[in-house]
Structures are given as C-alpha cells and as structure tokens.
Design brief:
Length: 139
C-alpha cells in the first residue's frame, strides 16, 4: 500500500467507493467522475503505477476480472459497446498513479470516439523505421 494513493485508500476502505467486484487480488468500483453511466475502474489491490510493474499472475487475474466485468457493466446500463483501456503513465493521461483499467460503456450515437482518438498526430513512418521498431520491441 502507498500512503498517499487514493486507490490504495479505497482498497483499504478508508475512502468510500461503489464496489462492484472484489477478489483476493483485484478490486473494481465505479468511477467517481464517470464518462458514461457504469464507467468502472478495475485495479490490482497491490500498489503499482505501470502495467509493466505487474507480475504475470496478477496481470492475468486483472485481465480475467476485466473480461468478466465488461459484459456485466454493459448489461447493467444497457450499453451497446464498451471501450476498455489504461492510461499508463502521465504523458498518456494517467492521473492516479495506481494501475487501473477503465471500462467505459458506449452507446450508439453517444458522440464519443474510438480509442484511436487518444493518439497525437499520426507519424509518417517508413518501412525501415517500422522494421526497426518491431525489432526493438521483439528484443
Ligand atoms: P486516469 O486519468 O488516472 O486514468 O483516471 C483516473 C480516474 O479515477 C478518473 O476517471 C477519475 O474520475 C477517477 N477517480 C479519481 N479519484 C477518485 C476517487 O476518489 N474515487 C473514484 N471512485 N474514482 C476516482
Ligand atoms: Zn495505490
């Protein structure tokens, strides 16, 4: 637990939240400032800022909760679809430095945008640059 982390305080019960799911390792609750009805945050109970900080078992448990909850969230608010995403790091818009997966219900003609809208200006990359990036990621 991190003392000054809002989400650790929610897990500890020190800050109230509308809990929708809890296991030994994972916790889910409604977002206090929702982008849509049913907007849910799914988090590991242990404090970690980045997805790359999670060990494989915890990452697996977290994603299992996300896949279980996403249709339940949609059903609860009669949504047509959902965006599922993580702001991983400040430059990506992460404001709470405790890994959290947003499950955001979407409705036909709700005026929102696809996840592609989060990027900046699209880069114009050559085949060589794409090959080099792929090789770096592959390691
Ligand atoms: P981020 O920008 O870090 O990906 O998203 C943080 C999310 O946490 C925001 O959508 C914000 O509304 C939500 N949030 C911030 N503080 C609280 C809180 O105290 N309780 C709940 N339930 N949600 C919070
Ligand atoms: Zn935390």
């Amino acid at each position: 637990m991190s003392d000054d982390c809002i989400f650790c305080s929610i897990v500890a019960g020190d800050i109230p939240a509308r809990t929708v799911h809890e296991t030994d390792d994972v916790f889910a609750f409604l977002d206090a400032n929702p982008l849509a009805p049913g907007h849910t945050l799914v988090i590991p109970k242990v404090h970690a800022q980045h997805v790359g900080d999670l060990d494989a078992d915890l990452a697996s448990d977290l994603f299992a909760a996300v896949t279980e909850l996403t249709p339940r969230v949609q059903d609860a608010v009669d949504a047509d679809a959902a965006n599922v995403g993580i702001n991983d790091g400040e430059a990506a818009g992460q404001e709470v430095p405790h890994v959290h997966v947003h499950v955001i219900p979407r409705f036909d003609d709700d005026g929102g945008a696809p996840i592609h809208a989060v990027g900046g200006e699209r880069p114009d990359l050559s085949d060589e640059e794409l090959d080099a990036i792929a090789a770096d990621i592959a390691g």
